Amino acid sequence: MGWFSGGYGFSSMGVWTVGGLEVSTGKVSSIEAMNGSTVLLPCTYSSCIGIENLYFNWQYNDNGTLIKLCEALIPMEGVEPKVRVSHERVEFVGSSKSNNISILLWNITFEDEGEYICFARNPKEKNRNHSAIFTLIVVDQMKEVDNTLTIIIVSALGGVIGLVIIVMVIKAVVVHFLQKDDEKNKECLVSSSGNDNTENGLSGAKTENKGTPKA
Fold first, then answer.
1. What is the pTM of this model?
2. What CATH number has the domain bearing residue 96?
3. For the chain, how many structural domains are there in total?
4. CA torsion through residues 147, 148, 153, 154, sign
5. Which has the closest alpha carbon to 124: 78, 57, 83, 75?
C-alpha cells in the first residue's frame, strides 16, 4: 500500500504527543445530532516548522476496533491532498491551504454514535504524530431549551423598569403641580399686599379729613 501502510496509523503508533505537530477538533469536542442528519467532524493541524509529506487519517472507534474512514498525504503546504475514502458516507471537505482536514458524515444512524479520531504524522518533525478525538452523539430529536428562568428574569426586570418609569412620571406631575401652586400663592400674596396698601392709604386720607378744623 506504499505510504498508506498501517504503520502510520493511530492504532499501530499508539503515541500521542503534545508540542510541535498538533491536531485539534476545536473548542467543542463533541456534538449531538439527529438521526438521519449530516454532521461535520472538524479537525485542523498546525506545525511550528511546517509540514512535508504530512500523513493524516480519520478512524472510528468501534468498541476498541479502529475502523479507517479516510486517509491522505499532503506533500507540502498549500498542495491539496488526494484523499482515499474508505466509507461510503464520508466526504473530505478540508483544504491544506487552511490546514483543515475535516470530513462530513452523511445520513448518520444510531450505529454511527461514538468516538472519531483525527490522526496526523509529520516526517519533517522526525515523524512526530498527534491525535484528537471528536465524539458524536445521535439522538431522536434535539432537546428543547428551557427558557422559563430567562423569561422570569426578563419579566422581573421589565416590571422593575416599568415601576421606575411610573414613579418618575408621577414625580414629574407632582412637581409640575407644586410649581403651579407656588406661582398661584405668589400671585395671591402680591395681590393681597397691593390691596392692603390701597386700603391703608384710603383710611389714612379719611382720618386726615376728619381731623381738619372748620374755618
1. 0.60
2. 2.60.40.10
3. 1
4. positive
5. 75
